[in-house]
Amino acid sequence: MIPVANPITEPADFDQRCRKRGLQWLNRNPDTKRPADYWSEFRAELAVGFQDRCGFGAMWISSGTVDHFVSCSENRLKAYEWSNYRYLDGWINSSKSKKRSQDLLDPFEVGEGWFEIELPSLQLKLTDAVPPEYRRRADYTLRNLPIRDDERLIRQRRAWYELYEQGKLTLDGLREKAPLIAAAVEKHTAGKA
Fold first, then answer.
1. Given pLDDT bands bounded at 50, 70 and 90, which one contains residue 140?
2. CA distance 116 to 182
3. How far apart are CA 65 and CA 50, in angstroms?
4. How far apart are CA 25 and CA 108, in angstroms?
5. Are 115 and 127 in contact (CB under 8 A)?
6. CB–CB of 58/2 below 8 Å?
7. Which helix (H) or strand (E) segment is 135 a member of?
8. Is there a cis peptide before residue 7, judged by omega within 30 degrees of 0?
């Protein structure tokens, strides 16, 4: 996880096309479990705000999903709130479906240097930079979402790292697509000096 600029500018037509429309839908359908999806048409704008990187995986993804940080089952009234959306890889989004938002560290809360990638394992870990008031949720997030050492993310991290190692991607390019791996490379290089 890496810091994400917050707030992300709400699209000009979001209020009319999603929020108002969605709240009208909720009023007409109070007993329906899953709200109507009026948010997906704003996925591209959300992706720009996250620099096309997954909010939890912290790497470039080609086609993320709109995640409701506070799930619809937790609070239906947040289903159509722009400030409740996060850009996530679909399978990571699915993995948090049964988790309570108050237990998770919000990508918008993450500070610089709170997480790092270890080389050569490519596992994600917490650093001592995580303030005490965020530590419990950061640890819970790392242990309960598949972001620490899930093979799907390890393979993706390895692919970015190998592109860099093979000279096919500059350090600046790596920093743009997978900033935690770039930071790990820089730390590893500094340790050799």
1. very high
2. 10
3. 12
4. 28
5. yes
6. yes
7. helix 132-144
8. yes
Cis peptide before 120 (omega within 30 of 0): yes
Say how far apart CA 55 and CA 104 lie, in whole Å.
Answer: 12
Structure tokens at 28: 């007409």
Structure tokens at 147: 């972001």
DSSP 53: B
Tokens encoding 48: 């720009």
The predicted structure's pLDDT at residue 170: 97
Q: Is the dihedral of CA 148, 150, 152, 155 positive or negative?
A: positive
Cα distances (angstroms) measured from residue 78 to each of 96, 137, 186: 17, 21, 40
Secondary structure of the chain: what % helix, strand, coil (to 5)? 50, 10, 45
3-state secondary structure of 33: coil
The verdict on pTM exceeding 0.85 is yes
Question: Which pair of tokens denotes residue 4?
Answer: 């994400």
Residue matched to tokens 């699209």: 11
The residues, any chain, with a CB within 8 Å of residue 176's CB and separated by 6 or more, are: 51, 60
Distances (CA, A) of 91 to 33, 74, 97, 128: 21, 20, 10, 29
